[in-house]
Amino acid sequence: MRRNARALAASFTLLSLWQLSEAMVSVVGGGLFNHALAGGSVGALLIWGGLLILMFTRSMCTCRYGVLSAYRVDRVEANRLRAAIAHHILGPRGAHTERLPGVALSLANGNADDGGTLSRTVSITFASAVSVRSS
Predict the structure, then answer these.
(1) pLDDT value for 99
(2) For 1, which of 53, 76, 90, 118 is 20 to 30 Å away at the CA?
(3) Side-chain half-sphere CA neighbours of 112 within 13 A
(4) Cα–Cα nearest to 36, from 52, 27, 49, 21
């Protein structure tokens, strides 16, 4: 995770903003009903409606780019793990196992995908914790 600290920080930030935006949609919706619809003001309706549209737009963009950043870290890390494993198994000293190098490499590739998935899970968990903490 240290190798991808910048990308993970971006993912954490974007996903946290997404969670907070989702939490604020109900607040802005309440403001829309209380101030614009109950008051009968067209100007207030436009302001609160525009604010609600901005909240949904921010929510959509931060979710999209936060998940994209987490997925990119996931794939880059899985590829790095896969390359390191292949270098070790297919190197001159090889891996000390009873399995043939191709079988060991195939098993290691599956595990590399699981190892890369950790960054995505950590990003979403961190964002959820921030959202719960701040609400």
Answers:
(1) 66
(2) 90
(3) 18
(4) 49
Look at residues 73, 74, 67, 72 and name the one whose alpha carbon lies nearest to residue 116: 74
Per-residue pLDDT of 13-50, as tens digits, reads 999 999 888 888 888 888 888 887 777 788 888 898 89
Q: Which residue do the tokens 């292949």 mark? A: 86
Matching residue, tokens 């060991």: 104
The two structure tokens encoding residue 64: 């999209």
The percentage of the chain sitting over the pLDDT mark of 70, rounded to a whole number, equals 92
Report the C-alpha gap between 115 and 126 in whole angstroms. Answer: 18
pTM of the model: 0.73
Phi-psi region of 40 (alpha: psi -120 to 50; beta: other; left: phi over 0): left
User: Containing domain of residue 15, as a range?
Assistant: 2-134
Total count of domains within the chain: 1
